[in-house]
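Box 4.2: Ligand-aware structure prediction
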Amino acid sequence: MITENEVAPATDASFFGHPKGLGPLFFTELWERFSYYGMRAILVLYMVAPPAQGGLGFDVKRAASIYGTYTMAVYLTALPGGLAADYLLGARLAVFLGGLVIAAGHFSMVFHSMSSFYLGMILIAAGTGLLKPNISAMVGGLYGEKDPRRDSGFSIFYMGINVGAVLAPLVCGYLAQSESFKRVLVNNGFDPAKSWHWGFGAAGIGMILGLIIFVIFGKWLAHVGSRIKKQVVSKASEVAANQSLTAGDWKRIAAIFIFFVFTILFWAAYEQKGASLNLFAKELVRTEFFGMAFPSSYLQSCTPLFVIMLAPIFSYLWVSLKDRQPSSPVKFTLGLVFIGAAYLLMIPASMLTVYGRISPLWLVGLYFLEVCGEMCLSPVGLSTVTKLSPAKLVGIMMGVWFLASSLGSKLAGYLSGFYLADSTRLAWLYGGIAAGLLVSALILAFLTPTVKKLMGRVS
Ligand code: GLN
């Protein structure tokens, strides 16, 4: 699926020392993620809001299940989306068409009807499958095989993702939830109960901005992601795929599958933020800052903000530790410990809700620890997968990586279905998640020598 070295390496360094083609890819993905996280920040809230407040009036179980299925679908389509680009469209056309389909999906949700609601989510999931894996592959395509700037290029790209994710809840959450925007609507003769749909519309406009950048500055990409080159590579990789795998290859694939299982659990906890923690924030948290009320969905901006803050620190840490840095199974274990600790924090937080709304700092603390975990697991996982996969299978293995996000998201939705604004119940729910993750960290620590053996020389 992902063939990174499909072109001669670009030699220019005009985008922060990187090929200038990174610019359009950075901004297109920034706006795509803006649209994804903006819509997602208000999705569950819209589903559970009563019809009198413009919502769909679903109960929490149904809303959480739809959220889980939707976020699962968004990552599940990465595999067919990548294949479609490899064999049919080329990455560039796939990204463009994907963006159009995503925008159409968000605009469908501007209308208040069941069919436009479901159609919107189907289109966004299909479009994301076309766009997300292929735009990442195009980033890889900017660099030659041995170009040392590749990892750093991916870090810059990951920052773009998170800039979009910080801005999105602020814009879409403001339009959908804030009292001040509702007043603007009333003053201009619009129905304030329809505020949700302004939020969904803003997500669609974000995607359009990304597409405009992609088209106008597409020439900077030279022939990265073009169809003809892609076919040549596909043919070449078909030939390579016919060669059988060695015993060492199988061992490294087994190591990837061990990481895969633990990664599912990580995302199942992490993705509570759009579902149960979103409801928690709305119903049980004092959403005000120095006396100023803010929409609960704003708290969704914490994680990407922390990613932007912590990414340079973690990358500095790994680089400065050089040979002494922990191996990838140890980093994965640390990731699970951090997120387990994050949910431990939710036990006292939940218990305190008996006395009324709690400080937003509880959630801020939880998100901070979660992102420490993300930094140990997510970028490390991406790079480990590329290092461990036999070259001819790297695309499929990246699809497997996204499959872990997909299954983890569905599990997150399932767990969120147990949400009820009751302190004891919440302490059990989050305490259970914490226990599950800490136990799985222990199991992975126990498995580490075996995983290291399977990994061979790769660390
Ligand atoms: N936050 C990252 C993104 O949006 C990774 C998400 C994931 O793999 N689940 O691209």
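In the box above, the bound molecule is glutamine. The longest strand covers residues 288-289.
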